[in-house]
Structures are given as structure tokens and as C-alpha cells.
Amino acid sequence: MTTTAATTATLTTTAPTGTTGTTGTTGTAGTTGTTGTTGTTGTTGTRVELLLPTGWFPVCETAVLTPGRGVAALLPDGRQAAVFLDRTGTLHAIGNRDPFTGACVLSRGLLGGGRSGPPFVASPLLKQRFDLTTGRCLDDPEVAVDVYAVRRS
């Protein structure tokens, strides 16, 4: 299985014909959100995978993630996920589409929270904050984004 990264930080994965799925997981499970589980910690494993309805989907190599920053991942159905590695080494994945503007920009937002509250990303456009464990908007509790289970393999 090969992973390619575009200069826009959008990552896509392609697999050769006849390749079967991967096995094994590393790290420990994190917090359960409203639509999934997020927050995998641990430093073993070289690939980041998201749990989709069809199974685990490889997104990128762990080495391309920078603590405190996010990357956008193109999913098989055409949607995007924002994948983050926070400064504690925990992985998070949420939908990349900002529900207030419709733009796919959450992967470029600033991370915050931690000791003073839940980890969140602030949208780079209108600055609404989204909890990385539940997807819920901290500034408007009626709004939320998707949350994806994430693991290192």
C-alpha cells in the first residue's frame, strides 16, 4: 500500500489490486464521542487509519503529521476528514467541512484546550471552536461535525 501527499496537505491513499486489509492495532483508545471514538495515543505504528462504515481506511504515514497541526484527508466517498496530532501525541479526526461556511478548512485551524478543557480546533474562518472528541461546536451547541475513530497501525 502506498501513500502520497499533495502539496496542499490533502492526503490520499491508493492500494494495488489484490491487496487485502491490514491487521493489528497499537496505542490505547481515547474518549468516546457522539458519533465515534477519537483519541489514540502511543508512538508505535507508522500509519494513521480512520474507521469508516466499510472498515479501517489508511490515511497517511504518522511521520507527515506535525504536533499541533492538522492535515486534510480525502475519503473514498469524496468527503474530507481533518486529522490532528495534538502536542500530547494524541490523534483526533473530525469532518473537515466548517458547517458555518461550508468550506473544507478545519484541518487548517488552530488547536487549543487540553488542561483547561476539551481539546478543540478553531475554524480559521469565523473562529468557532469544535471539540475534537465529540465534534460539538463549543460556541453553538446545536452544531456539530462528524467524528472518526482513529488508530495507528
TrEMBL record:
InterPro entries: NirD (IPR017881), Rieske-like_NirD (IPR012748), Rieske_2Fe-2S_sf (IPR036922). Residues 1-44 are annotated as: Disordered. It comes from the Bacteria. Pfam families: Rieske_2. Keywords: Nitrate assimilation, Oxidoreductase. The keyword Oxidoreductase applies. Transmembrane segments: none annotated. Signal peptide: none annotated. Residues 56-151 form the Rieske-like [2Fe-2S] domain. This is Nitrite reductase (NAD(P)H) small subunit. It comes from Streptomyces zingiberis.
